[in-house]
């Protein structure tokens, strides 16, 4: 019996290692998806390839230390438009009470009023960045980060973005 147990131990270690690798692969794959839901006509779950294929813009913004960086990403308004959020000419009356709640992997959440994301209302473009200074965002920051240019404090520069939920304030 002891011989059988000794023979099985290496197999058990290999299976445990394979299970660990599989879990890591699945969790990293899940981390690249972005879910857009709530008060939208077309809820979306966008994979990394979907986001990469979307038109990107570049912008320069200063981080919390005042250092200037070049970010590349998708305007949040473009993502919300694809999901069917109320924007443009439809953003009036009760729809002005809608917000986008952006959630991170660690549970951190920030809020944006839809008018501040809409180019018909706002002069700045807020992006979901996937690159900084020409390289992908580092682990712990990416794969996606919201960048809000010219904001005095970068508290809404949320890292590791997982979802955007559009909802009414009331």
TrEMBL record:
Give the signal peptide as a residue range, or say none if absent.
none
Q: Which Pfam families match?
A: Oxidored_molyb (PF00174)
Coiled-coil boundaries: none
Domain Oxidoreductase molybdopterin-binding, first and last residues per copy: 32-165
Query: Per its record, how is this protein called by name?
Result: Molybdopterin-dependent oxidoreductase
* Source organism of the structure: Spirosoma liriopis
